[in-house]
Design goal:
Number of domains of chain A: 1
Radius of gyration of chain A: 15 Å
Largest sheet of chain B: 6 strands, antiparallel
CATH superfamily of chain B: CheC-like
Structural class of chain B: alpha+beta
CATH architecture of chain A: 2-Layer Sandwich
CATH class of chain A: Alpha Beta
CATH topology of chain A: 60s Ribosomal Protein L30, Chain: A
Number of helices of chain B: 7
Structural class of chain A: alpha/beta
Distance between the termini of chain A: 28 Å
Shape of chain B: globular
Strand order of the largest sheet of chain A: 1-3-6-5-7-8
Helix content of chain B: 40-55%
Helix content of chain A: 10-25%
Number of helices of chain A: 2
Number of strands of chain B: 6
Shape of chain A: globular
Oligomer: heterodimer
Distance between the termini of chain B: 18 Å
Number of strands of chain A: 11
CATH topology of chain B: Chemotaxis protein chec
CATH class of chain B: Alpha Beta
Strand content of chain A: 25-35%
Number of domains of chain B: 1
Largest interface: A-B, 27 and 33 residues
Strand order of the largest sheet of chain B: 1-5-6-3-2-4
């Protein structure tokens, strides 16, 4: 399923490197986000939404076998095409970003963490496509889980040991 | 992964666990034994499910090798097991048996973050780190001998978080093998209780190549 979009009906999960799109109703969940970044795209008026559970900023030679849903720069354009195919208007699309944590807190060691690079790649790819980012809950050192309500576009985030909040 | 390499990993991990038990006995004055032990390989995308699902909170002890060679060693304990494990080591019975899963989840995260009245104490953190340190170092030393590669581990890090977040660390390193995660499940016992843990080892592509090439 990696890199393939699915039309969701009720509650669906976007696993590592997967895209999930839906129309009209239902929930899309992403469990256990660490350094990965979930890119959520919604068109509330059309009630179309989708999530890409991205793992790495871009493809490298050592990850060439992996599906395109793993890589931010490939997954975001693919996700945009999928939601537009379901009836979303490109001019109404907005994005929300969740994840990109530095779980091992290695960022202080100098080089950017994978999480930080994923966040930057998501921002850059969305900017190139002209999709505004409505909200972000990114960075830090803790994992997150999220739920996207397809009909309303509401994104709910919860950190381990914390309370849920709307993004 | 070739069958002979799985046998090699199983042998090294078994020896590493045995040495870790001896180390604990010296630290705590308690005899610890491995009651059961098994090793298998799995795909990276399946690891979260093996550990109870990506939303399960767990305790992870990481060892990372310096440079591009080697890989990641991650010991994972379910929060209740982790709590029981440190209680076994410290002799502190605590009140873990009366708490809900959410309370334990919150308390463990506070402990790991150095917050709350029961912040993970130096001794408890050291016990978990030592588990990772002894086991991981011995495994890496054995692999270094066989592969003729320098495999130097970083100091261990204890992290309490969602399983999915713990495993993300393994999934996002492009130097690591795409198709081989070693999973070792072990049950430990002392006179005061029993605990189980899972060791994950994700070798680098470079290490797998060296082993499959017969070393060097």
């Amino acid at each position: 399923m990696t890199g393939e979009a699915r039309v969701c009906r009720k509650v669906r999960s976007a696993g590592l490197g997967e895209l999930c799109v839906a129309r009209a109703e239902g929930l899309i969940e992403v469990h256990g986000l660490g350094s990965c970044v979930a890119v959520c795209i919604t068109d509330v008026e059309a009630a179309v939404a989708g999530v890409a559970h991205t793992v790495l900023p871009s493809r490298t030679s050592s990850t060439s076998k992996a599906g395109s849903g793993r890589f931010v720069d490939e997954a975001v354009p693919l996700l945009l095409r999928r939601v537009e195919r379901l009836g979303a208007d490109p001019g109404r699309l907005v994005a929300r970003l969740v994840g990109g944590a530095d779980i091992l807190s290695l960022n202080g060691a100098g080089a950017s963490s994978i999480g930080e690079r994923n966040i930057e790649a998501a921002r850059a790819t969305l900017d190139e496509r002209g999709v505004p980012i409505a909200a972000e809950d990114v960075g830090g050192t803790r994992g997150r889980r999220l739920t996207l309500d397809v009909a309303t576009g509401l994104v709910t985030v919860r950190m381990a040991g914390g309370v849920s909040y709307e993004l | 992964m070739k069958a002979e390499n799985l046998d090699l990993f199983a042998d090294l991990i078994g020896r590493a666990f045995t040495h870790a038990m001896l180390g604990f006995a010296q630290i705590t004055g308690k005899k610890m034994e491995i009651k059961s032990f098994s090793v298998r390989t799995t795909q990276p995308l399946e690891v979260s499910q093996l550990l109870g699902g990506p939303d399960q909170v767990a305790v992870g002890v990481y060892l990372v090798t310096e440079g591009s060679a080697g890989g990641y060693v991650l010991l994972v304990f379910d929060p209740r097991v982790a709590r029981a494990f440190v209680e076994m080591l410290t002799g502190d019975a605590g009140d873990g048996g009366k708490q809900s899963d959410e309370e334990i989840e919150r308390q463990l995260i506070d402990m790991a973050n150095g917050q709350g009245s029961e912040a993970l104490g130096d001794f408890q953190r050291s016990a978990l780190e030592e588990m990772g340190n002894i086991t991981g170092s011995l495994l890496l030393t054995g692999l270094a001998d066989v592969s003729d590669m320098a495999l130097v581990p970083t100091p261990p890090r204890v992290v309490v978080d969602l399983v999915g977040a713990l495993v993300d660390v393994l999934a996002t390193d492009p130097q690591l093998s795409d198709d081989a995660v070693l999973v070792a499940d072990a049950a430990f016992s002392t006179s005061s209780g029993e605990a189980t843990g899972t060791l994950l080892f994700v070798p680098s592509n470079e290490l797998v190549g060296a082993l499959e090439g017969g070393g060097s």
